[in-house]
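Researcher: Let's run the pair from yesterday's discussion. Sequence first, then tokens, for each.
Model: Starting with the first of the pair.
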Amino acid sequence: MRKAPALGFLFSFILIVTLLLSMQVPAASSANFVGATIVLKADGTIEPSYAPIDVHGNVYTLTGDIQCPTRGNCLHIERSNIFLNGDGYTIQGSTAGEQTSSDLAIYAGFVNNIEIHNINIKGCATGIQLQSVSKANIHQTIINGYPQPENTEPIGINLMSCEDAKIDENLIAENYIGILVQWSTCIITNNKIISNTGAGLTLATTGTTLISNLISKNDLGLEIQSSNNTIQKNDIINNRRIGILIDAPENIFVGNNIVGQNSTNAYGVQMGPYEFGNIFRQNDFEDNSLHVEGGDLALNANLWDNGYPAGGNYWDTYDGVDNFNGISQNEIGSDGIGDLPYQITTANIDHYPLMHPIRSNPEISNQTLPKEDYSLIIIIAGAIVVAAVILLGILYWRKTRKQSISTPKATFLGGSSIAILFTLSIMIILNFASITAGTYQLGDIEMFGGALYFDEIPIGFLRCSESFANLEDHQQNRV
């Protein structure tokens, strides 16, 4: 009758083996193509011909992962009027420490009408560079600069002298500069630009529009070096030093969240010494150490409201009341506008400060790409758990062995209970290991040592198009 505990543990062993065979624990995938520049030639052919790209007319679809060469471009586009579909596959930078600032994942120059869609790019000095391209769209693509090439300052997307470009619904993370726009006209909308070590987005151009982007946890959120750009309905939140740095006059800022969320950043907006004529209205300024600062701001006037009744901006440091209404705020009855102006400096005044935010501040959490490897911790913790379960099993068996002759059924049930507990512990360990220390994918971009989260939503093990479809929208309705 003492064979009952052994039968229980045998049952446990069989169940564990079955589970292991049935589990699909993700593993690091190797590139299907390694080490040579791929050229999409102007005549429609591909060089080399064996590159993992399927061609149907003007549609080029990746059929496997690509490892970049140690030097130079990985994918070079010479043909106009094409659609490049990554289908969730990865373009991986060359070995860290061997790259130079000239290493590009995708380059297109002096062509027209191209679209780049659903590609994962990681570990490259520059993710995508477009030069003198007319009508380009970069859409639902993931560019992760980690691991950052040694002695370089990675750029996610670099536009140079482009016309009518659009950058939308991309995830740009852990570069030095997330998006750099130079001498180009562009619409940048609905992107997640996070955790870049320099600027999340730099505009060295005129005529660019930013709409409904999340710009968060960068060292500097948004840097503007030229005039006549429109910044509208963006969440510029929790950047480390500065939310918006303005080094040019006459830009427009409407309906943005400019929020520090108690981060270490000193300024919501910082202006250079000669900036004037910038327009700010319907923005929310919250939780910044100082909302507006810089240069000769005391002398150079910027416009901080849109008159009455449209009003100005919301300032969480405004301590006025709302008992009156009207252009002069002298008529009885509240109107959602403070009765007294909000004075920034002598020359900079919001004459109609709003009493309430334009919209609620979105909750932003876990926006990092953790790289820590917890494998050893998991192994140790797993060993401790397994040892504890086995020890408890031995103690339980010794306690009940005297009852085994008279109550064999109870002994077998006790052994089976231990077996089930042991099996469950193994399942928990394996599951935790696969979630915490395994291979993580957003699209097919793989992260080691931790999952990637937005708003506490794990988005691992999804192809690129699926992951974007399941992300909660950070951009809430604005007035």
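Model: Moving on to the second of the pair.
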Amino acid sequence: MFGIRSNVYPPVNVKSLGMAVLLLVILGQGPVVVLNAQGYGANFVIDSLITDKTSYDAGEVVQIWGRVKWTSGTESFQVAARFKIRTPSRPLIDVGRDVWLFVNKGGVGFLRGAWIVPKGAEKGSYGIYVCAWVATSSRIVYNRRVVSTIASFTVRSGDLQYPSESWRRIWYVYSDSPADPWVQFLDSTEDGSDLNFDSDWGRGRVKYGLADKIGSVSSRIVSIPPGSWTFTVGGDDGIRLYIDGELVISEWEDQSYATYTYARTFTTAANHLLRLEWYENEGDAHVSFDMRQSGSAHDGPEI
């Protein structure tokens, strides 16, 4: 009835994971949730938890590790848990699905969860809670879902970061659904100083070993002189462009590589926020961006 289930989590390198486990072993925070399967010969405690950082921005992932420890009894059991996050305005948010792990008699197990800080998230302090219970292979024997605080972190900014000297690209696993595209955070990178780019991977690997089911949200701030400007973006598959938060190009669907343009006249020199979203479902992968002033001999504004 109960198989061991796990979430899809952002990848973490072995060194980071090993350090997390070591810190969990060393830095126990005292009992957080005690699970007493009375009559079934097992007692467990979730007694420590850490996050990979203490503060985050929108689009970054909060990685959570927790320790489950067998404390007494005569049997091994499955322990199920789900992390919850308390926002500054107090509502609780579930983090993924229930995570099941088998804890042997006298043993220790480790829980892992991950939450992507959404765009527009409240600034301030967030609490992490745990909700856990115990089951045999055929039935839940302790199902009172105990919720208790175990850690906290801070959201510095609910907005995407817009660097002036490079694109900031946040990479995700694509969900196979344009309406809800990002299923898993991968990483955030600074992608050189070139404003205009043409990245054509064909059927090769794009990043993180993935050739398909991958996408990105790229952002930067650009000082644009007055005049008429043409923005050209290309995508295989979906592509969309925002300028100062306004969606100006939206071709958010599976397609062969194609380019799309948008023209705007700026009356004064000013800084403008660019956000380019792209996903690759299957087959060839290709994304491009170009902006240039009408009659200009060079590509893009001087940066």
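Researcher: Give me one sentence on the second I can quote.
Model: The chain is about 5% helix and 60% strand.
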